[in-house]
């Protein structure tokens, strides 16, 4: 009987973990090009405002390597188009960035003058509804503050224990 319960727990956990899918989102939508917007009617921020980005999703930036780059920056660097001290720098032409923290995230072009011409992106990363945390603050609320709850550690702990017990029942 105990192995039947363990089997149920294992199946449930496998289904749960398989159902938590990360999305790959191409920056800019259908056009998918990380470049200076061709008209004033397009803005990367307006595009991002129409989308919902979840923790674990991936942003895909497509651009010509050697002629452009992507910099992940702070809010202040984003506002001033400052390329001198990025949090991360990408130059490969097909960049995938995992959204691994909730709250506002900022990107600018690393090519001189491109950011001031609109090649910049601000978005907000939300925690999926199945999580124990509430959604991240909007960028206007200021910098994101890490949650102080231990619920994530607790949930992860029980998830791992459940998997170990489930697999243990099979052997």
Automatic annotation (TrEMBL):
Family the UniProt entry places it in: Belongs to the early nodulin-like (ENODL) family.
Entry's localization field: Cell membrane
PROSITE patterns hit by this protein: PHYTOCYANIN
Organism superkingdom: Eukaryota
Signal peptide: 1-22
Species in which this protein is naturally found: Brassica napus (Rape)
Family annotation (CDD domains): OsENODL1_like
Matching Pfam families: Cu_bind_like
Protein name: (rape) hypothetical protein
Annotated keywords: Cell membrane, Disulfide bond, Glycoprotein, GPI-anchor, Lipoprotein, Membrane, Signal
Listed InterPro entries: Cupredoxin (IPR008972), ENL_dom (IPR041846), Phytocyanin-like (IPR039391), Phytocyanin_dom (IPR003245)
SUPFAM superfamilies: Cupredoxins
PANTHER family found in the cross-reference section: BLUE COPPER PROTEIN, GENOME ASSEMBLY, CHROMOSOME: A03
Residues in Phytocyanin domain copies: 23-127
Membrane-topology annotation of the record: Lipid-anchor; GPI-anchor
Gene Ontology MF annotations: electron transfer activity
GO cellular component terms, semicolon-separated: plasma membrane; side of membrane
